[in-house]
Design goal:
CATH superfamily of the largest domain: 3-Deoxy-D-manno-octulosonic-acid transferase, N-terminal domain
Number of domains: 2
Helix content: 40-55%
Distance between the termini: 13 Å
Number of strands: 13
Order of helices and strands: EHEHEHHEHEHEHEEHHEHEHEHEHEHH
Shape: globular
CATH architecture of the largest domain: 3-Layer(aba) Sandwich
Radius of gyration: 21 Å
Strand content: 5-15%
């Protein structure tokens, strides 16, 4: 068993700049160097994680090798060994390469049904090898904790740090009391890197917008999300002297924010008052977001970038993470989060923007008052990691 470094796993790659932001800030909180197991190593080497980690290791994909896939499939069936797939995937940190502390860092992984088996098997595999596991910065839908296998998996972790109170309270109600703590998402601590602003940026008059394919997938009424964003942009351009900056935060091939935003840009580019911000690292994107007057975003970590730099923010959300973070900051998620599932009319996002604009200074002042302590709470999670690393 190795104890000189700490493993971070369940990292989905830095083309998701929320994943990048979590890894970036958590690595800096660790008492020992980090070994990052990544599903997309090449992405991590492009952005801010290169140089922060002791080592970035590419996961091995069993599906990409027919012979190995077949071999492990039969091994799993014959020997009733469901964890064998994960031992192959994480071979660089298993067996004689096992480290004492292993941290699962995918913040909302437990919100996705297709991730659950891998999460459970990974946790069990590290424990069977004698390692300790931590689930850090998590959000979990309360309904998921009605499943016996999820509750058993939660109890297997040596430490759980929820990033918002809805998840924290749901864990407690599910009987998971020991070693469960509440600390804000480490990405609230992400550094801000401010590059030169692009031509057309109107200082003090930019409304930042982020839209994702994922919220479109979660809408109940087909096409309503894009209708709302188009109506909002038209309203901003017609009734204010503001301009609009479209800011991506995930650029995965299968879920690229730039795709729906390209359509929005093309619809309004003739006005000369809409900008497309290109892909960049999480700190650089935070730099653009921090210089917006207001921000309306779909991606959680785009909105965290806004909150943490005291930019009044409206979240177009679909899950517990958006509601929980807003509730912890403001005491309620009402008016601060617009659930995409509830959208029925194209004017609803516009109305949310008007509410935000009418309380702009009040919200900015509130964020300036609460953010220093909130960031201290986020940083305090490092003390928990230092303690468990010493055991």
């Amino acid at each position: 068993m190795k104890n000189d470094k700490i493993v971070l796993y369940m990292h989905a790659g830095s083309d998701n700049h929320g994943c990048e932001a979590i890894a970036n800030t958590l690595i800096k909180m660790l008492p020992k160097p980090a070994v990052l197991i990544s599903s997309r190593k090449a992405e991590d080497e492009k952005y801010s994680l290169q140089g922060l980690c002791s080592q970035i290791i590419q996961e091995k994909y069993i599906e990409k090798n027919l012979f190995i896939h077949t071999w492990y499939y039969f091994w799993r069936k014959i020997f009733h060994d469901p964890e064998c797939f994960m031992r192959y995937r994480y071979g660089a940190v298993c067996g004689k390469n096992m480290y004492g502390l292993n941290i699962s860092i995918g913040g909302d992984n437990y919100c996705y049904e297709n991730m659950l088996e891998r999460l459970i098997m990974s946790n069990r595999m590290f424990h069977r090898g004698g390692g300790k596991t931590v689930l850090y910065g998590c959000s979990i839908e309360p309904e998921a904790l009605s499943k016996k296998e999820i509750v058993e998996d939660m109890k297997r972790y040596d430490l759980i740090v929820a990033r918002e109170s809805i998840t924290y309270e749901a864990l407690k109600r599910a009987g998971i009391w020991e070693n469960v703590f509440l600390h804000p998402d480490p990405a609230f601590l992400l550094e801000t890197e401010c590059l030169k602003l692009p031509s057309g940026w109107m200082d003090g008059r930019m409304v930042g917008l982020n839209v994702s394919p994922m919220i479109v997938e979660n809408e109940k009424k087909s096409g309503i999300t894009k209708e709302n964003y188009k109506a909002l942009i038209a309203h901003i351009l017609e009734t204010t002297d503001f301009s609009v900056a479209l800011i991506p935060h995930v650029v995965w091939a299968g879920g690229d924010d730039r795709n729906p935003m390209k359509e929005l840009y093309e619809a309004f580019s003739h006005t000369g008052r809409i900008l497309q911000i290109g892909d960049a690292s999480a700190p650089v994107l935070k730099g653009y977001i921090s210089r917006c007057r207001m921000f309306i975003g779909a991606r959680t970590h785009a909105t965290i970038a806004a909150y943490s730099t005291c930019v009044p923010t409206l979240v177009v959300g679909y899950s517990v993470k958006a509601r929980g973070i807003a509730k912890d900051l403001f005491g309620t998620d009402k008016n601060y989060v617009l659930p995409v599932q509830s959208l029925q009319k194209k004017e609803e996002l516009l109305a949310g923007f008007e509410w935000l604009k009418s309380r702009e200074e009040e919200i900015r002042c509130d964020l300036k008052k609460l953010m220093p302590d909130y960031k201290k709470q986020a940083a305090a999670g490092g003390t928990l990691l230092a303690k468990i690393a010493e055991k």
